[in-house]
Amino acid sequence: MQRAGFRLPVVDLDRVTARYDTLFGLVADLRAMGATNSLTERSRKPLRRAALLRAAQTYGETFADPDGRLRATFDIIWLSGWAPED
Q1: Tally of domains within the chain
Q2: CA 71 to CA 17: how far, in whole Å?
Q3: Assigned domain for 8 exists
């Protein structure tokens, strides 16, 4: 930001933990946030149902709370700066 001419750059971080009933609810939110694979060389083939179900099982085993809901943590990074006045 300083190279772009901004002064007094500030960076802040908010860490938010969300809980989901299923992995598919998390995936829907990720897509809505635009957090998908944007690589041009990515595979265009859809995942097989078995792979998705296995991913849901593994995520549940790793990140489930005692009540069975799934945790996902998001870091929201805020950048701000001020341009000098002429």
Answers
A1: 1
A2: 7
A3: no
Please tell me the distance from the alpha carbon of residue 68 to that of residue 78, in angstroms, as a whole number.
32
Give me the domain span that covers residue 60: 18-73
Is 22 a member of any domain? yes
pTM (2 decimals)? 0.73
User: How many Å apart are CA 84 and CA 82, to the nearest integer?
Assistant: 6
| CA atoms of 80 and 8, how far apart (whole Å) | 8
3-state DSSP helix/strand/coil % of the chain, to nearest 5? 30, 35, 40
Q: How many CB atoms lie within 10 A of CB 64?
A: 13
Rounded to the nearest 10°, the torsion over CA 68, 74, 42, 56 is: 0
Mean pLDDT score across all residues of the chain? 91
- pLDDT tier for residue 26 given thresholds of 50, 70 and 90: very high
Is residue 5 included in any domain, yes or no?
Answer: no
Which single residue is written with the structure tokens 């950048």?
79
